[in-house]
Every structure is written in structure tokens, then in C-alpha cells.
């Protein structure tokens, strides 16, 4: 028996052992009955292997602990109490429904964080996933112009491949991950209508239990997935999508809030990531306003994070070059440490 035949037999055995829905098991078995040769053979094998890698029945166990969730949110985010309260209310409903399942079927709202660049939309989604103990994967929508990126390309096409939704499930290995639909307002104009149509199907509980990826060509149940969306604004989001999400406005940060975030969150994190000792870097208190506003007001903290990281990288270089610490940033030497 040649290697190809052995490979097919091994896959047939995996299909038999896998706990697949009957119709999918038959679909895979039929595909391997006459797999063809050459490139066609490779395409069939890739298809079967991809389907076998999907988590049809594997779910992660949620950590449904409101106290822990609050601790995670407070650890990762300063301020934005209104946003945190909305998240904790959302998680409270999940907890209650896990204890007393609704016979009519419970469908959690799709949270959508709306706000300016750098206000923490993406990071808050990661904190929700952390609080629940679920894996999270991000799908960027910025510049997306083809709905096939979400829905996949049919196997009869030369460029056949699964869409990003099914790739996300394979990557996380569970059927209930958090999938972050990032910047859904920034899709390319030419593909907006069709992409919004796919989004409606993903976010609608009446439809997402039977989502069809064109590569797979069979329905997959996405009802256990927790979708979270972000957008800079809602102008370019279709009304049908807006009807299926719960928008939460992300507030702009004041200078006072940025000062605390910079000192207590961003600076320790940058020092830690650079491999430096926390006590080796000292920034004089009066300098923070210049670090916060090197180029004027910014609603978010992304530019502040880049500035702090730039300062720490310059110090890291001095350490490697043999200069002794601790390193004190003062009004006299600040300009030399600020990123160009």
C-alpha cells in the first residue's frame, strides 16, 4: 500500500472515531471514496483534515464569577466605570441563565464598543474573555472588501479556503470562543453591503446556529460563540447590524485619568516587557503632562502608550550599553528620552 492510500485509510479511521454529526461523517467518507490524484487529491485531504480539526463538540468551561470579573476589569482598565458596570450586568445575566436555563432559549446581546481610537475598545474585549476564561481571537475588518474573507471560498474555485470565522474556531479549538469583530465600521466601500449581510447572519441568533461557510458547504452551529464588535462610530454600520448589537460608548480619557493610567498601568507594563527592574526607572511627577500631551490632546491612550514604550526602549539601550541605573527622567533630560 502506498503512502497516499495509507493516509486515506488513516483519515477514514479518524472520521469513524470522531464524534461528528451523521451527515458530516457521510460527507467526509464520500469525499474520500474517490479522492482523485495530484492537486485534486491534496485538496480533498486538506478539506477532510480541516473539518476534522473543527470543535463540533468541544467547549471551554466558563468561569462565572462576578467578583473575579470585576477584579480582571479593574486590573486591566482604570476608570470607565459606566462601561465596566454594563459588562458586569451582562455577565450577571449569563450567570443567572447558566444556573436556571431559560426553556425558551437565552440569547445574550452582542456587545459593541464604540469610541475613538485608543479608548480601549479592543482591550476591554480581551478582558471579558479573560474574566470568562474563554480563548479570544480577533478578526480585523479594517479595509476588508470581500465577504468571502468571512464566509470562505468554495472548493470548486482554485483559491478555495475556509473563511476567517471557521479558521478562528479551528485556531481556538473550542466552539464557544470570544470572536472579536474589530472595527466593523471600516470595511471597504465596495464590499460593505455584502459584508454587512454576513455580519447580520453571524450576529442573529435565528441564523447563526446554521452558518454556512462556502468552503465547508454545510451548516455549522455558531450559537455558542460570544461575538464582540468594535467601531470608531456607527455611521457606516448597516441598520440591520445595529439592530442586532448593543452599543456601548467608550468615553474619552481626561488628562487626570491618563496620568494615573500612565503611572500605574502603562509604565510598569513597559518596564516589565523590556526586562528591566521596576525600581530602575523614575519619572519626575511634574513631567507627566508633557508625556501625556507631546502633540496636544488625544482622546485615547494609544499615543501615550507609544510614548512610554519609547522612553523605556531608550533606557533599555542604555542598560545594554553598560550605563548604570537607576535612570531618572527629569525636565533637563526628558527631550532626549521622548520618541522622535
TrEMBL record:
Single GO molecular function: serine-type endopeptidase activity
Gene3D superfamilies noted in UniProt: 1.10.8.60, P-loop containing nucleotide triphosphate hydrolases (3.40.50.300)
Matching SMART domains: AAA (SM00382)
InterPro entries per record: AAA+_ATPase (IPR003593), ATPase_AAA_core (IPR003959), Lon_lid (IPR054594), Lon_Prtase (IPR027065), P-loop_NTPase (IPR027417)
GO annotation, biological process: chaperone-mediated protein complex assembly; mitochondrion organization; protein quality control for misfolded or incompletely synthesized proteins
Domain AAA+ ATPase residues, every copy: 107-255
PANTHER family xref list: LON PROTEASE (PTHR43718), LON PROTEASE HOMOLOG, MITOCHONDRIAL (PTHR43718:SF2)
Name of the featured protein: AAA+ ATPase domain-containing protein
Amino acid at each position: 500500500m502506498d503512502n497516499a492510500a495509507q493516509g486515506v485509510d488513516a483519515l477514514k479511521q479518524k472520521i469513524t472515531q470522531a464524534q461528528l454529526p451523521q451527515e458530516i461523517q457521510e460527507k467526509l467518507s464520500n469525499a474520500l471514496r474517490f479522492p482523485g490524484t495530484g492537486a485534486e487529491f491534496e485538496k480533498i485531504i486538506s478539506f477532510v483534515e480541516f473539518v476534522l480539526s473543527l470543535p463540533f463538540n468541544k467547549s471551554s468551561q466558563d468561569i462565572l464569577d462576578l467578583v473575579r470579573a470585576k477584579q480582571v476589569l479593574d486590573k486591566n482598565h482604570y476608570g470607565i466605570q459606566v462601561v465596566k458596570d454594563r459588562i458586569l450586568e451582562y455577565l450577571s445575566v449569563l450567570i443567572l441563565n447558566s444556573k436556571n436555563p431559560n426553556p425558551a432559549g437565552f440569547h445574550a446581546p452582542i456587545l459593541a464598543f464604540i469610541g475613538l481610537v485608543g479608548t480601549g475598545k479592543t482591550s476591554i474585549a480581551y478582558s471579558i474573555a479573560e474574566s470568562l476564561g474563554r480563548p479570544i481571537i480577533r478578526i480585523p475588518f479594517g479595509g476588508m472588501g470581500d465577504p468571502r474573507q468571512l464566509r470562505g471560498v468554495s472548493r470548486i474555485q482554485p483559491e478555495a479556503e475556509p473563511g476567517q470565522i471557521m479558521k478562528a474556531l479551528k485556531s481556538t479549538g473550542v466552539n464557544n470562543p470570544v470572536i472579536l469583530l474589530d472595527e466593523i465600521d471600516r470595511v471597504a466601500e465596495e464590499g460593505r453591503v455584502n459584508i454587512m449581510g454576513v455580519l447580520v447572519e453571524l450576529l442573529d441568533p435565528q441564523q447563526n446556529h446554521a452558518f454556512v461557510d462556502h468552503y465547508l458547504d454545510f451548516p455549522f452551529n455558531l450559537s455558542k460563540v460570544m461575538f464582540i464588535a468594535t467601531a470608531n462610530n456607527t455611521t457606516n454600520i448597516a441598520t440591520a447590524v445595529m439592530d442586532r448589537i448593543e452599543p456601548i460608548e467608550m468615553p474619552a480619557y481626561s488628562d487626570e485619568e491618563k496620568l494615573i493610567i500612565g503611572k500605574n498601568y502603562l509604565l510598569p507594563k513597559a518596564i516589565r516587557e523590556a526586562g528591566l527592574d521596576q525600581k530602575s526607572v523614575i519619572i519626575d511627577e511634574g513631567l507627566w503632562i508633557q508625556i501625556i500631551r507631546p502633540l496636544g490632546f488625544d482622546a485615547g491612550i494609544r499615543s501615550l502608550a507609544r510614548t512610554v514604550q519609547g522612553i523605556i526602549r531608550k533606557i533599555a539601550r542604555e542598560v545594554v550599553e553598560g550605563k548604570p541605573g537607576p535612570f531618572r527622567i527629569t525636565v533637563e533630560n526628558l527631550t532626549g528620552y521622548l520618541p522622535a
